[in-house]
Design a protein that fits this description.
The chain is mainly alpha-helical and 137 residues long. The chain is 61% helix and 0% strand.
């Protein structure tokens, strides 16, 4: 079952933070909320993940889990790097590389959201269904 615990585990694996020492749950949860919101806006849906934002059940299709993980991972990496950049010297090479990586991953996430949006529009599923002709009043 895909819930907040599974989502965090997949994020930590993707971000190479298995023990959870670098990225706190709060950062991962906020990144996941933002990514899920973007998925919902792109697909015109109201998907949820159990435990995320108080959701009681998961409605996110299994086919979109990887998209959610990649978007949340990009946002979490960029957020963590930006926070670290404020603490370290501005020219810190590892931080700059992490910021760049996070931005690249987020650009890929945005491209995938665009594809999701286009597929939903082509299928004509709500809220993108074709408008009916309305008689003039």
């Amino acid at each position: 079952m895909f819930d907040i615990t599974a989502l965090r585990a997949r994020l930590r694996a993707w971000l190479n933070d298995g023990p959870g020492l670098a990225l706190p749950d709060g950062l991962l949860d906020e990144a996941a909320c933002q990514a899920l919101d973007a998925v919902n806006r792109a697909g015109g849906s109201t998907y949820s993940v159990q435990g995320l934002g108080g959701a009681l059940a998961t409605s996110l299709p299994a086919g979109l889990e990887t998209l959610l993980v990649s978007g949340a991972g990009a946002l979490a990496a960029e957020g963590a790097a930006a926070a670290a950049e404020r603490l370290l010297e501005p020219a810190g090479q590892p931080v700059t590389v992490l910021v760049a990586w996070g931005r690249l991953q987020y650009e890929r996430f945005q491209a995938a959201l665009g594809e999701l949006h286009a597929r939903q529009m082509q299928l004509g599923q709500p809220p993108y269904a074709a408008w009916e002709e309305v008689e003039d009043v």
